[in-house]
Each structure stands twice: as structure tokens, then as C-alpha cells.
Amino acid sequence: MQEVVQMSMFSVVVLVAVALIFDFMNGFHDSANSIATVVSTRVLKPVQAVTMAALFNFLAVFVFGTEVAATIGKGTVNSEIIDYLVIFGALSGAIIWNIITWYFGIPSSSSHALVGGLIGSAVIKTGGFSDLIASGILKIVAFIFIAPLLGFLLGGTLMIILSWTCRNTPQRVVDKFSRKFQLLASAAYSLGHGGNDAQKTMGIIWMILIAAGLSTAESQIPFWVIISCNLAIALGTLFGGWRIVKTMGNRITKLNQARGVCASGGGAITLFIATIFGIPVSTTHTITGAIAGVGSTHGKRRVRWGTAGNIIWAWILTIPCSAVFAAISWYIGKFVL
């Protein structure tokens, strides 16, 4: 067992601040997931869309529990090896990967970047994999594939139901109906985004407090942590990740208002299910699958599978790449901090 470096109160404050910066960047990076469909179909202007998304990101604090935070805080890495260097490496690795993917407009997962960061820091600290909690990590890895598949199936199913129900309805009536329901679907998606993603940072801050002896694995997450994390991700969403909106909105498949409703709705249902069961999933993977599912109902040629394939490669690379960056950051931090 590696010796754990004792955290000072200064280290706790700095690490909590860095965690909230990551949370802000999560909202900034993933805001396009919440607003891409509603902006691309011109139901809302971009400023209106990000304001609505940010509001519902924050309101998630009053809707969901902390099951996802528990999975991150207690279900990925043995808490006995956590110290300020492990947390520093994990957050640094995730932030570096988020900046790279944001710059190139790649819809990668902030959630999986964080998990990869934890893995990379833990492995380089201990020199092996024994302190990784296999059950929690395997569940997260499994949902790299399950979440987009579920989004795909739900988005496609909603599109089929809507198309069949409105088959004899004039298009102008369908468009009017779709505009109203797309607002509801996008709001629900933003609520699910805030509920699932903010909890991942809650789990990290909980790790910090446990490692510093300020909390225990059996105690409740402090309310100030819950509020701070939801507020940080909401502010990040408010500033927005405009580089990714175009990719998510129209490069996978061409969206109209009806398709936008079904894509957001399918994604929202997937996020609600995952959050209720405490499963940390990628909002990016979820909405990408839902958009592709909606497009596929109009024929496989309506989906740009090449773009979708490039996004999938980013999904696959996120955990190992962020783990490498985290390991490097841990090593640098060992000599600098």
C-alpha cells in the first residue's frame, strides 16, 4: 500500500477550486449537447437556449439525489489511496483532454475524461491496478456503449411514434406542435444533464473531503458541495461550447423540429434512467445516439455515419488519453507541489 500524502487545509481549498473549475468546463464543453437540437431547428436563439439549459442544469439539484456522486466517490478507486496528488492528477488529466477536444470541436465525454483521470492517477501512484474498483469501472465502461444505444433506440422509437400519430396531420400543425414540445424535451434533457454530470464533481469533492478527514464514506455529501457543483456546471453551460454545436446539430443528420423533439426526448429519458440508478453516463454519447436514431428512421443514408464514426473514436480514446495525461500530471505534481 502506497503512503498517502496528508492534505493540508490549503490543499483542500485549492483542489475543491480546481474541481469546480472542471465542473464549469464540463458545462462549457457539454452545453452544445443540451442546446444543439433546439438551436439547429431554430426553435430558440442561441442565447435563449443556453439560458434555459443553464437554468435547468441548476434546478436538477432539487430533483435528483446523489447516487451518481456515490459511484464516482466510492465506486471507482480505493479511497485509502486518495491524496491531493491523485486528485490533482485526475482533474488535470480530465481538464487537458477537455480543452483538446473542445478546441477541435470533438464531442467527447467530460465524464469519462474524469474517470480516466482517476484511473491514470491511481495506477501511477500504486504502480498497478489493485486499487481500482473493477465493478464500478466496468459499469461505467459498459455504458459507453449502452447509453448511446439506448438513446438511439428511444430517439428512433419516439420518431416512429410521432410520424405514425401525425401521418394525416398538416405539416404546419406538426411544426407548431413540435416547437412547443421541443422546448419541454430540451428542458428535460438539460435537467438530466445537470443531474448526472454535476454529481460527478460532487463525487470528486467528496473524495477530497474524505481524504482530508473532513467527511466519511458513510456520511452524506454536504449541501454546500451539491449547490456549488450544480451552480458551476450551470455557469459553464451559460458561457457555452459553440464549437461543438454545429457537429451535434447537423453533421450527424439533418434535424427539423419534429426530429429535434424526439432526439432531445430520447436523450432525456436515457439520462433520467441512468441518474436514478446512479450510473455516470456521458451526455455526449447519449444525445449523439439519440440524434442518430432519429435520423435512421428516415433511412440509413440520412445519417452521416462517417461523422458518427469519428465521434465514436473520440469516445474510445477518452479514458486512455485522459489517464495518460493524468499520470503525467501526477508525476509533475509530485515534484512541483
Descriptive notes:
This protein is mainly α and 337 residues long. The protein has helices at residues 9-40, 46-59, 67-74, 84-103, 110-126, 134-165, 171-211, 223-239, 242-251, 257-276, 283-296, 305-336. Helix 6 (134-165) packs parallel to helix 11 (283-296) and helix 7 packs parallel to helix 10. The longest helix has 41 residues, at 171-211. It is elongated, with a radius of gyration of 20 Å.
**In terms of per-residue confidence, which ranges show pLDDT below 50 for 5 or more consecutive residues?**
none
**Main beta sheet: strand number and arrangement?**
none
Beta strand %: under 5%
* Mean pLDDT value: 83
Share of residues in helices = over 70%
The strand count comes to: 0
Q: In DSSP terms, counting alpha (H) and pi (I) runs of 4 or more, how many helices?
A: 12
Which structural category do the helix and sheet elements fall into? mainly alpha
| Straight-line distance between termini | 22 Å
Rg calculated over all Cα atoms: 20 Å
